[in-house]
Amino acid sequence: MTVPDRTATIGAEDCPDWPAEWAGGGTVTPSSPGAVRTGLDVLLAEGIPGLAGARVGLITNPTGVDRGLRSGIDRLHASDRVSLVALYGPEHGVRGDAQAGARVGAGTDPRTGLPTHSLYGEERRPTVRMLAGLEALLFDVQDVGVRYYTYASTMVLAQEAAAAAGLPFVVLDRPNPLSGSRVEGPTLDLAFASFVGAFPVPVRHGLTVGELARLVAAERGWPEPTVVAMRGWRREQWFDATGLPWVQPSPNLPTLTSVTLYPGTCLVEGTNASEGRGTTRPFEFLGAPWLDPFRLAEDLSARGLPGVAFRPAWFTPTFSKHAGRPCGGVQVHVVDRAALRPVALGLHLLDALRRPDPAAFAWAEGPDGVPFVDRLLGSDGPRRALEAGLGIEEVTEGWAAETRAFVARRRPAILYP
């Protein structure tokens, strides 16, 4: 069957202030190498007005590199632009040495000798003790543009802590790797807020972290953050058009393809099927021991989903769900990323994984007893609709209005129009 395009993706046709060539994703011409400069590069070259030599803390991880792949920690530690005195690590840690979901401890950075504070351990936000002695708190982490990726939640909680402490909050901006010209999925219902959804935005929000920080501050009445804006980034650019080096944002998102699929295939994480963790293609391989890969691929292919193709595949995860057990499933191949609607894809995957054997399939519960997929989608509506046998177009009905409202809501926060 061919599925109607009712997946609530916002493009140029929905936003009259966007150039017409952005409709349908547009054609992106790659920038020359180094053409885009991140907020870190700009800070190192120009400094931050009013904070010259200030004692600062830095929330960062291995993605916080300059365009020469040198660590921002090392660059700022050796720089006189600011005085770097403390480090703060999100999920996976300051140096990226922790696996997904693993608690991160505090300690000392072995390279610089700076104290490291964990924002993914006992505490999820900086405490008063962690911020003592600072004159500003900096954030430099490469996000992936998806609401349930935990780096954005870390930033929001750090903003709140900085506001309470009267500290300037500074974001060194980086590209949204999925471009800033697409918005898709439901807006979070705050009744389902969690660390995989800390602020009411759609699943794919189309913002940079600097723009997101501006939106959060404006709507929560916090001081406006200082955003060290990029130079040369255009809203329609995907990461591979920026000329910047790719550093995988976390252990299970190794490539831009995995990030491209993540807004949808991450929903499988809310089930007892494997989302491909423990394989060489996480969030591309999907399946479970009880599934027939050929029937699953035929079902998904018959749905006529834009931008993707499905190959029947066997895989055996080395860790995470079904470790050491052969899983039947599919590899999802991106064939046209401009046409792809990843959140709608994710709902089709949930439906297709559940249908062959509803008794074997199960929704994964979070530590609070709430189905984890409800936390990811920001509502229990989609799960209940799938359980009731509704079609995907019925599940997504209403999303378009939500995303149009969000595009209008976010407009004052936009830095790269």
Q: Can you tell me the CATH superfamily of the largest domain?
A: Uncharacterised protein PF07075, DUF1343
The portion of residues assigned to helices is: 25-40%
Q: Mind telling me the C-alpha Rg?
A: 21 Å
Classify the fold: give the CATH topology of the largest domain: Rossmann fold
Domain Peptidoglycan beta-N-acetylmuramidase NamZ N-terminal: 56-256
GO molecular function, one term: peptidoglycan beta-N-acetylmuramidase activity
InterPro entries: NamZ, NamZ_C, NamZ_N
Domain Peptidoglycan beta-N-acetylmuramidase NamZ C-terminal: 261-416
Nutshell version of this structure?
Helices cover 26% and strands 14% of the residues. With 417 residues, the chain is an alpha/beta fold.
Structure report:
It comes from uncultured Thermomicrobiales bacterium. Residues 261-416 form the Peptidoglycan beta-N-acetylmuramidase NamZ C-terminal domain. InterPro entries: NamZ (IPR008302), NamZ_C (IPR048503), NamZ_N (IPR048502). The protein has helices at residues 39-46, 72-77, 128-131, 150-165, 209-220, 256-265, 293-302, 342-354, 372-377, 381-387, 392-395, 399-410; strands spanning 55-60, 83-89, 107-108, 115-118, 136-140, 169-172, 184-187, 202-204, 226-228, 285-288, 308-315, 327-334. The protein has 2 domains: 14-19 and 28-247 and 406-413, 3-Layer(aba) Sandwich (Rossmann fold); 255-379, Alpha-Beta Complex (Aspartate Aminotransferase, domain 1). The radius of gyration is 21 Å and the shape is globular. The protein starts with 38 loop residues before the first helix and ends in a 7-residue tail after the last helix. Helices cover 26% and strands 14% of the residues. Helix 2 (72-77) links the parallel strand 1 (55-60) and strand 2. The longest helix is centred in the middle third of the chain and has 16 residues, at 150-165. By secondary structure, it is of the alpha/beta class. Helix 6 packs across helix 8. The protein has 12 helices and 12 strands. Strands 3-4-2-1-5-6-9 form a 7-stranded mixed sheet. A 3-stranded antiparallel sheet has the order 10-12-11.
